[in-house]
Amino acid sequence: MTQPMMTFNDGHTMPQLGAGIWQVPKDQTARVVREALEIGYRLIDGAKAYGNEEGLGQGLRDSGIPRDEVFVTTKLWNDAQGRDATLKAFDASMTRLGLDRLDLYLIHWPVPKADLYVETWKTLIELRDQGRIRSIGVANFNEDHLQRLVDETGVTPALNQIEIHPTLIQSDMRAVNERMGIVTQSWTPLGRGDFEAPEIRSIAETHDRTPAQVVLRWHIQHGLSVIPKSEKRERLAENFAALDFELSQADMDAIDALDQNQRTGPDPQTFDMR
What we know:
- It is a single chain.
- The chain is α/β, with parallel strands linked by helices.
- It contains ten helices and ten strands.
- The chain has a domain at about 15-190 and about 225-230: NADP-dependent oxidoreductase domain (TIM Barrel), CATH 3.20.20.
- Helix 6 links the parallel strand 8 (about 160-165) and strand 9 (about 185).
- The protein is globular, with a radius of gyration of 18 Å.
C-alpha cells in the first residue's frame, strides 16, 4: 500500500498517516509501536506528557526497521517552556527515546498566560540549526500565536497539530494553516464516538468499510495528516487500510455537515496546565 507523503515548508517530508501513542500504557507501548511498524506505519507520534517515550524508542529498535525509514515526533510539555528548560527537556526526551536525532519536535500548547512560547520557539530554531531536530512545529496554536512566532522570528512552523474530527472540523484554522504554508495534523481524529453518527454509518455501509475507516479517510482527503491511536493490532491494521479507498464529494460534504464546533479537549487560548 502506497503511503502518501506531506511536504513541509522546510522541504522535508512526513507520512500522511501515522500511529499515535497517547494513553497507550507504558508496558504496552513498545509492542504497539513495533506492531504498527510491522503493519506499514512509518510515522509515530509521541510526547513527553504521554509518559511512554521509552517505549516508543524501544519499539523502534525492536522493529529492526532502519532509523531513517521511520518519522518520529515528540512534544515539549508546558512546564518546560523557556530557553533553559526547553534545552533540558529536549535532552531528557532524547535520552528516553534513545535517539540522537529527532524528525519533528512540537511545542505542545502555547500557554499564552505564561508568555514563553516565542522564547521556546527560538530555542527550537536553535536546536534545528544545530542538526538535532530535522523539522520544528507546534500543536494547538491559534492564528494569533502562529503570526506572533513568524513576526518575531521569521520562522514559520512546519506543522500545527490541532483537534479535528467530524464534530469539530476547524475550517478556519485549517485555512489559516494552509495560507501560512503549515501542514495541519489532526489529533483525536475520531472524536468522542463521531463515527457512530448515522450519516457516517451509512457511508461505511456503501463502501463496505468501518465507520472509523470512513472518518480517517475523510481526514486524508481533506489533505490532513492524521494520527489515530489504538493498542490493538487488528485496529491498527484497520486504520492503516483507510489509505486504500476513496470517498465521493457527496460523502465528504455529508461528514462536513456534522460540524458542531464541539471540542473534546481544552481551548488553546486558555489552557494553562503545567
